[in-house]
Amino acid sequence: MMRPPWYLIVLAIIMVGCAKSKPEVAPSPPVPPRPSPVKEEPPSPPPKLSPQVGRDEENQLKQDAEAKIKGAERIFEQLDKKALAADQQEILSTIRSFLSKAKQALSTKDFVRALNLADKAHFLAEDLSGTVK
User: Fold this and answer.
1) Is residue 104 part of a domain?
2) Does some domain include residue 42?
């Protein structure tokens, strides 16, 4: 029995279609190059943003800041630190921080900032002193 020629063609197509082909593998993405280590330099101090004041006003600000710092320190020293509650100890720590930053601002001739910080320290010291007595 003779089969028609198209039968052989269909059979060949079926055989090829049924054959397993190699699965396509997606190429792996390229590995990015590692960045070379960068030496980080310490940040430079921020620029002073204090307003410009004249020499007379600058001297007055300096004197006022020094007076407020001395006043806050006097009140600070008179406090019975052992008798303070936990929240009052936090206020005491804040006063210390303000005083330290005010002195630092004085040393960098940032008198406006020094007075601002000294005022805050003095206010907190007076307030704390009033609650302890």
Assistant:
1) yes
2) no
Q: What is the pTM of this model?
A: 0.59
- Other C-beta atoms closer than 10 Å to the C-beta of 127 total 13
Q: Domain residues for 128?
A: 55-132
Domains contained in the chain, number: 1
Cβ atoms within 10 Å, residue 23: 5
The pLDDT tens digits of the residues spanning 64-122 come to 999 999 999 999 898 888 888 889 889 899 999 999 999 999 999 999 999 999 999 99
Distance CA 33, CA 57 (A): 58
CA separation for the pair 70, 75 (Å, rounded): 9
